[in-house]
Amino acid sequence: MKKLMDFLSKHRKAFMLLFDVCGMAIAMFMSRTLLPEGSDPHLYYIQSAICAAACLCGLYVFGVYQKLWFYARTQDFASFIFGYLSGSTVAVLGMAIIWSGFSSIALQTLIVFVVLSTVASIIIRILYKYLKTLYVEKLNPKTKKRVMIVGGGGACQILLLEMLAGKSEYKPVCIVDDDKAKIGCTINGVKIIGTTDDIPAIVEKKNIEEIILAIPSASSEQRAQITEKCSGLPCEVKTVPPMREFIEKGGMLNQIHNIQIEELLGRPPIDFDYDEVNSLVKGKVCMVTGGGGSIGSELCRQIVSFKPKKLIIVDIYENNAYDIQQELKLNHDLTDIDLDVYIASVRDFDKMEMLFNKFKPSLVFHAAAHKHVPLMETSPEEAVKNNVIGTYNVA
Description:
The chain is an alpha/beta fold. 54% of the residues lie in helices and 13% in strands. The protein is built from 15 helices and eleven strands. The protein has helices at residues 2-10, 12-32, 41-61, 74-98, 104-139, 154-163, 199-206, 220-230, 243-249, 274-281, 294-305, 318-331, 349-359, 373-378, 380-394, and strands at 145-150, 170-176, 186-187, 190-194, 210-213, 236-239, 257-258, 285-289, 310-315, 338-343, 363-366. Helix 2 (12-32) packs antiparallel against helix 3 (41-61). The protein starts with a helix and ends with a helix.
């Protein structure tokens, strides 16, 4: 079976041409029965052969034999219509000149011949596409992920074409779309069965393993709303890239990815201007208060990468201060950077004044603060001491 399919694929154009000729021959004999008694069958066969040759030329001009019919779309089949129409029109006009016009009966018979030939050619390719799909699925019998697609637009159609090619790891089960007029319709044989509000129920009913958001033009608010409806479900949620990226990189199925936080921001992500930060930090004496905390420690990592002259880390909690000190020594080249760590509280005005007088920092990154709001609600006076008075002292 594999050798046969490989042979057919290798000589695809020749076999398609042969199938079209066979289809035309069958159409020729079928339309021959429409000729009235007394008609010259030999003349009919000559005229049909000329028409068939012209139609084959028309099919070639419209690229029918250059198409990969395994991946054919609806518009690809339209090329048959144009190919047959153009070829038969040229043939009829040419024969009208040669035989000084056509009888209406002869013309009607040729029209039937062209229609039957067109139908035969299209059926042959649909059958080829169906048989090859079955063959590919048999060749790749692996279990596929059951997928729900959100959005019944152009991106959904592209995804389905790639999935149904037989080589993907996905099995499209259903589609959901908030346009209720689309419910009950199908796209490439896959049915739209509900709206995004129905996602939880459909996931359970259809045993969905993965949800793909196929709305490249969706705003961050729309993505967030759909993601919220998918939260807590036992399946992955992925999204397609914006249409611009899809066009630039080509192929949509291999570009689907997990939804990232930047896509839900509600605004474009802020780009980091490395050149401006480098000119601000490089060669300067920098101080980071609260340098051992979650925000302060990341500030220290970023600042060190821009080569300051000196970095002073100030934190009240010695464990965190020690951890970031050792991390910087281990992961960064501190050959040209002085690194000092001081255990101090921003509440202590005298201690902070001593550090400022000693090091005279050019830049101060003030990250010392109580940040856990629920905890601070039960101890508001501590938040005031640290976040208000401490900030005042540093300032």
